[in-house]
Amino acid sequence: MLRAMGRDKASLDRMTFDNLTGSLLLLLLLVSDLLLCKSVASLPICPSGAVNCQVSLRELFDRAVILSHYIHNLSSEMFNEFDKRYAQGRGFVTKAINSCHTSSLSTPEDKEQAQQIHHEDLLNLILRVLRSWNDPLYHLVSEVRGMQEAPEAILSKAIEIEEQNRRLLEGMEKIVGQVQPRIKENEVYSVWSGLPSLQMADEDSRLFAFYNLLHCLRRDSHKIDNYLKLLKCRIVYDSNC
Amino acid sequence: MKENVASTVVFILLLFLNINLLNGQSPPGKPEIIKCRSPEKETFTCWWKPGADGGLPTSYTLTYHKEGETLTHECPDYKTGGPNSCYFNKKHTSIWTIYIITINATNQMGSCSSDPRYVDVTYIVEPDPPVNLTLELKQPEDKKPYLWMRWFPPTLVDVRSGWLTLQYEIRLKPEKSAEWEIHFAGQQTQFKILSLYPGQKYLVQVRCKPDHGFWSEWSPESSIQIPNDFTMKDSTVWIFVAVLSAVFCLIMVWAVALKGYSMVSCILPPVPGPKIKGFDTHLLEKGKSEELLSALGCQEFPPTSDCEDLLVEFLEVDDSEDQQLMPAHSKEHPGQGMKPTHLDPDSDSGRGSCDSPSLLSEKCEEPRANPSTFQTPEGIEKPENPPKNVTHTWDPQSTSLEGKIPYFHVDGSKSSTWPLPQPPNQHNFRSSYHNIADICQLATGAAGASATLLDKTDKHAFKSSKTIETGAEGKAAEQREVESFPSKTDQDRAWLPPQEKTPFLSVKALDYVEIHKVNKDGALSLLPKQKENSDQTEKPSTPETSKEYAKVSQVTDNNILVLTQDPRAPNLALFEEQAKEAPPSLPQNQAQIDLASFTAPPGNCRLQLGGLDYLDPAGFMHSFQ
């Protein structure tokens, strides 16, 4: 009996060992598959390497980058002109701290964070920021028009930015539609509530409200431009721009 | 006791302070941040300038806090950036965040802080220059040689991930030259230069700029020597082509200079001016209308021997319904209704010859209450005027002729109508030039209607009146034989035709006009031939058919034209100026012509009997105003 038991125990041991080996092998196989899969795809977001998808995505990104670059240039010029003309000696820069309405959106703050975030999340983040600026840009245009001696240069740039921002939003939605068609995100964006301060009677407060808005616009347009360039190099050129 | 101790302490302290002041020591001055810069948007460095150190060793610290935080930090690295600098590495750097940085200077005596500086790394990016600039001369066999250069982005900048996008600019110059030649290269890291001078040594530099930042410094110079045989082979071809084209241009210029005019006239032929055949404008200016008319091929006026043969001539008068007398240009009498319509739409045709249709082309269809006016040949007094001016001058007399009806009164005889004026038609008038002879014939012939006048223009007028007929129908003028001229005591007005605007008085188109009667004074009344029964003039009398008045014998002082009969019938007919009244009802077909005074015409057209030479339309004017 002992001998039978000993024999059974040995076979049991053998069986366990076999099972263990098998599962280990299986696990190894899975892992290797995963690794292999990851390194094969050149455009990870295009299904089975469809050519149309690759080409059109490249063009969409090129166009989006051009728009975002242009918008930031305009915002920068607009801010500099406003600063030179209305904000000298008023100490606005000391007050425009932590005052942007999009600061609640958790955007990456340096290169490492931006590279760690997933491209889908980054795309959605860009969309959120863009949407958050629809309303402020609209009111910026109407309020700049109402300013005394409405400065033509600033007004024209504001109008141009508003229009280009709308176009960029359309382009981004197309890209998102191609990259992740399945996921339909609810429209999330930050609400802007700075309209009353743009219409204040006190000139100093009103000018500071404009200064703050232009300052935040300059920063957010730079963020969008930077993120898009990162995404383009990552997605279209495989991090080899 | 205690007071003594306290005061002593104070005294010593003051003494001590004074000693220090005497030494020149003081707290440090205010430092100032000069510049903050990031070479790759991942780290940044700030430099400051110390203030006065107050004579004591002063230490500087940099403190900062970030936007959205309350904690104050101190500079993590004072060394890497050099003296008076602070280096923030990647861990301490946040993009899109404002840093509020302050420098504190401290020495033994005290401390002093700088003004806070607000720094956002996003906007202080200034990269290092590009590296590894290489130059190479390339001379492919079938292409032009060129200088090829390439470089690499600065080492710290991360372009591959797209974190920064760089644009480049190169500049080059021959070694001895003072000016750089700058080229923008975009985002590419290589460049070709094609236009180079052989045998020169070139210096090349490159710099870069991030997408939203500042230009870097220029890279160190790279140089290259261009060999002497570095030729542009196709330049000889261009030199050859240039020489050939220059020679060709010279030949063209020479040819144009020699034959310029003929070439120009070949390309742009001169536009011929208007001309009337045989019409000499110089003669017109000089006033020699005889020569002028003779040049045009007209016979003398009045006709001499020929006229006698043409005793019976018929005049054709226009009888179309839409023809009315027109007070040409008569603004004073717009309402008279004397506005004959234009009878000769294509009056231009064939009017230049002496054989143009009759002068009588209009017929007055106005009711008798409005006797047609007529135009006197005002233009006669200005023979040298061009025809179209004469039309204007023919003008209202008509105005003054309101209600007047020119007519010839011939005693009781059947009158043939006088050539009636044409509708306002310049061409008809021109034709008048050629028909004076005919008119003259008419006048001197058996037909008694001869209120002819003596001037050239009168001559013309007669002619044209004769040819007026119906311009539209273009019938040839025929002279109408005037059978008799009933003499008449009434004052009649001779009416000179052929002004285009001369109102055509009561003559039917295309009618033959008869002299209705000649009164005892020799006045003619004219009637259209075909409506003999309807012709009633105010002063009809039995026309004598045997008398014909064709010539003006004299002009009296009262502006009365004296007509004579044909030489065969040597009766004098006197035409007197009609009073300023129209016969109340003038038959539509009757023509009445008033003759104003006529002055003797110069020269050619001489009446056989009289000494009158020409008619002066001025006389008409007087009579009718």
From TrEMBL, chain A:
<keyword id="KW-0372">Hormone</keyword>
<dbReference type="GO" id="GO:1902895">
    <property type="term" value="P:positive regulation of miRNA transcription"/>
</dbReference>
<dbReference type="InterPro" id="IPR001400">
    <property type="entry name" value="Somatotropin/Prolactin"/>
</dbReference>
<dbReference type="GO" id="GO:0046872">
    <property type="term" value="F:metal ion binding"/>
</dbReference>
<keyword id="KW-0862">Zinc</keyword>
<feature type="binding site">
    <location>
        <position position="69"/>
    </location>
    <ligand>
        <name>Zn(2+)</name>
    </ligand>
</feature>
<dbReference type="GO" id="GO:0010628">
    <property type="term" value="P:positive regulation of gene expression"/>
</dbReference>
<dbReference type="GO" id="GO:0031667">
    <property type="term" value="P:response to nutrient levels"/>
</dbReference>
<dbReference type="Pfam" id="PF00103">
    <property type="entry name" value="Hormone_1"/>
</dbReference>
<dbReference type="GO" id="GO:0038161">
    <property type="term" value="P:prolactin signaling pathway"/>
</dbReference>
<keyword id="KW-0479">Metal-binding</keyword>
<dbReference type="GO" id="GO:0007595">
    <property type="term" value="P:lactation"/>
</dbReference>
<dbReference type="GO" id="GO:0030879">
    <property type="term" value="P:mammary gland development"/>
</dbReference>
<dbReference type="GO" id="GO:1903489">
    <property type="term" value="P:positive regulation of lactation"/>
</dbReference>
<dbReference type="GO" id="GO:0005615">
    <property type="term" value="C:extracellular space"/>
</dbReference>
<dbReference type="GO" id="GO:0007166">
    <property type="term" value="P:cell surface receptor signaling pathway"/>
</dbReference>
<comment type="similarity">
    <text>Belongs to the somatotropin/prolactin family.</text>
</comment>
<dbReference type="GO" id="GO:0043123">
    <property type="term" value="P:positive regulation of canonical NF-kappaB signal transduction"/>
</dbReference>
<dbReference type="InterPro" id="IPR009079">
    <property type="entry name" value="4_helix_cytokine-like_core"/>
</dbReference>
<comment type="subunit">
    <text>Interacts with PRLR.</text>
</comment>
<keyword id="KW-1015">Disulfide bond</keyword>
<dbReference type="InterPro" id="IPR018116">
    <property type="entry name" value="Somatotropin_CS"/>
</dbReference>
Automatic annotation (TrEMBL), chain B:
<feature type="region of interest" description="Disordered">
    <location>
        <begin position="465"/>
        <end position="496"/>
    </location>
</feature>
<dbReference type="GO" id="GO:0046872">
    <property type="term" value="F:metal ion binding"/>
</dbReference>
<keyword id="KW-0677">Repeat</keyword>
<dbReference type="GO" id="GO:0043066">
    <property type="term" value="P:negative regulation of apoptotic process"/>
</dbReference>
<dbReference type="InterPro" id="IPR015152">
    <property type="entry name" value="Growth/epo_recpt_lig-bind"/>
</dbReference>
<feature type="region of interest" description="Disordered">
    <location>
        <begin position="326"/>
        <end position="408"/>
    </location>
</feature>
<dbReference type="GO" id="GO:0030155">
    <property type="term" value="P:regulation of cell adhesion"/>
</dbReference>
<keyword id="KW-0812">Transmembrane</keyword>
<feature type="compositionally biased region" description="Basic and acidic residues">
    <location>
        <begin position="529"/>
        <end position="538"/>
    </location>
</feature>
<comment type="subunit">
    <text>Interacts with SMARCA1. Interacts with NEK3 and VAV2 and this interaction is prolactin-dependent.</text>
</comment>
<protein>
    <recommendedName>
        <fullName>Prolactin receptor</fullName>
    </recommendedName>
</protein>
<dbReference type="GO" id="GO:0007259">
    <property type="term" value="P:cell surface receptor signaling pathway via JAK-STAT"/>
</dbReference>
<dbReference type="GO" id="GO:0009897">
    <property type="term" value="C:external side of plasma membrane"/>
</dbReference>
<dbReference type="GO" id="GO:0060644">
    <property type="term" value="P:mammary gland epithelial cell differentiation"/>
</dbReference>
<dbReference type="GO" id="GO:0008289">
    <property type="term" value="F:lipid binding"/>
</dbReference>
<feature type="domain" description="Fibronectin type-III">
    <location>
        <begin position="27"/>
        <end position="128"/>
    </location>
</feature>
<keyword id="KW-0325">Glycoprotein</keyword>
<keyword id="KW-0472">Membrane</keyword>
<dbReference type="GO" id="GO:0008284">
    <property type="term" value="P:positive regulation of cell population proliferation"/>
</dbReference>
<dbReference type="GO" id="GO:0017046">
    <property type="term" value="F:peptide hormone binding"/>
</dbReference>
<dbReference type="InterPro" id="IPR050379">
    <property type="entry name" value="Type-I_Cytokine_Rcpt"/>
</dbReference>
<dbReference type="Pfam" id="PF09067">
    <property type="entry name" value="EpoR_lig-bind"/>
</dbReference>
